[in-house]
Amino acid sequence: MPSGPTGVHLAAACGVPHVLTLAGGDIYDPVKRYTPDKSRLLAAIVRRVLRAADIRVAVSTDLARRAVTLYGCPSPLEVISPGLALPTPPAAPSGPDLSGVGLPDADRPAAGAPDRRALGLDPDAVYVVSLARLVRRKNLTALVEACAAIGADNVRLLLLGDGPERLPLEQLAGERGFGSRVQFRGFVDEAGKQALLRAADIFALPSLHEAFGLVYLEAMQAGLPIIATRPGGQEDFLEDGLTAHLVEAGDPAALTGALARLVGDPVARHRMGAAARAAAAAFTAEVAAARYEALFGRLVTPDIA
Question: What does the pLDDT read at residue 88?
Answer without folding.
Answer: 60
